[in-house]
Amino acid sequence: MRPLASEILITGDEIREKVSELGRAIAADTPVHGEIAALVILKGAFVFAADLLRAIPRRTRVGFMETHKDPHRPALTNFQFTHAFSIENSDLLVIEDILDSGVTMNRLLARLAARRPKRIRTAVLFDKVSQRTEAVQVEYRGFEIPNKWVVGYGLDDDETYRNLDYLGYVEQG
CA 50, CA 62: separation in Å to the nearest integer? Predict the structure, then answer.
């Protein structure tokens, strides 16, 4: 039987504490009577988003977007809302699980900016800074992590491990 993870990198308690901290920071940067349009990038960010949004005491609308990369042409990424979700003139908060090269995030932010939200903020829980090839603006950042195949807290390995309450990694091979 394959182990749940080769090593725990960040415990569930550490993640919960950081998510709460990020929620407080987002709330502090949002007017008390303001409304947030939260856009959750599927699939990996669903666990982070659920916990983060509960930690932000502000009126919030939630939408979901899927990204589809062409494995043979990584420059081609298709972004698709899962349902109608207006972001025009909104205070948009993009919620993503992990950031690595910055390429996809920058393309996504450019496409979202074309829809003219009032402002765009990003919240990313895990950041592989060592993999960055493009500078990208992130207002709310959780943990810097090593360049390993990480799983847990929404992140998967072949659609498994998303349910773990911690971040670990699996050995590839």
Answer: 10
